[in-house]
Amino acid sequence: MVYKSFLEIVVSRLQTLMGNQADVSLRQIPKNNGVLLDGLCICRPESTVAPAIYLNSYYEQYLSGVSIDSIISDILAVYQENSHPDEARFRSFSSLPLARRHLVFKLISTEANKALLSTVPNLPFLDLSIVFYLIFDDGDTCFSSMVENDQLKRWNLDAGELFPLAQKNALSLLPPTIRSMTDVVRDMVSGHIKEPHDAELFDQILEEQRSAQPLYVLTNTTELNGAGCMLYPGQLKKFADAAGSDLIVLPSSIHEVLLTPDRGFSHYSSLSSMVSQINEEEVLQEDRLSDHIYIYSREQECLFTPEGDFAPIPS
Length: 315
Fold this sequence. Notes:
Layout: H1 3-18, E1 23-30, E2 36-43, E3 52-54, H2 56-63, H3 68-81, H4 87-92, H5 96-99, E4 103-109, H6 114-117, E5 122-125, E6 128-137, E7 142-146, H7 149-155, H8 159-173, E8 176-180, H9 181-189, H10 196-212, E9 216-220, H11 235-243, E10 246-253, E11 256-262, H12 268-282, E12 294-297, E13 302-304, E14 310-312
Antiparallel strand pairs: 1-2, 2-3, 4-6, 5-6, 6-7, 8-9, 9-11, 10-11, 10-12, 12-13, 13-14
């Protein structure tokens, strides 16, 4: 079954099941780097808020052998878990005094998001852009919403005034975490190693790798849009001082960056080529941040591109 037919069948089946209780529709929802995802919205007549359930991944499940019936059941379960959003809270985000407590920021590629950047407030940072969004999480419900230009006009602010608010909130709402890549990999595979000898050998390999070229993962506690942690006040400075050197920053995705001490013998062009290749082969298009590395100078407290462009970390 081709993708278009799959979408039509899913919408038709769900509308039949919902009857007059809700309207089922499809919307193309823009994501990072110009990616459009197909979002299924199930909206009750009395509701003005309808969470989107993305269908692209469900089609992949269908192609791998999952039945339409199972997919419909799964979508209904997701809908039922999220069918009662706090609409009053959502509407209150139009009011600056309430919205400002939920305002945070993230980093995206400028070149890959030109259309999006024309519709949202943003600040340039090297070849990246700082954009703003609102998050709400009460333990039962979690949603986010990009801040758009019309909201900014209603608030009578500009992007430069948003950033200090978003930066302050991010530190408390999305606190940073740094873990060694060794520990991350160990956690990923620890449940799959059964023999004690294999575990010892694996630990030895990881420790040798740590000694050769230590890598650290910088993200936030949600592990979403964590590359923005680069711009948290003092974050890179503190880590660079502890390492006793400048840093090489490898942008593995919009969700995290990798840090490694710059000992002065790294080939920046080779590392940038590696980042570009990994992006192409391993990273989803909507998750890509940049195709080259950045260098952090702890003396100047600036980030540099390999070409020599630089920008200070906003304070």
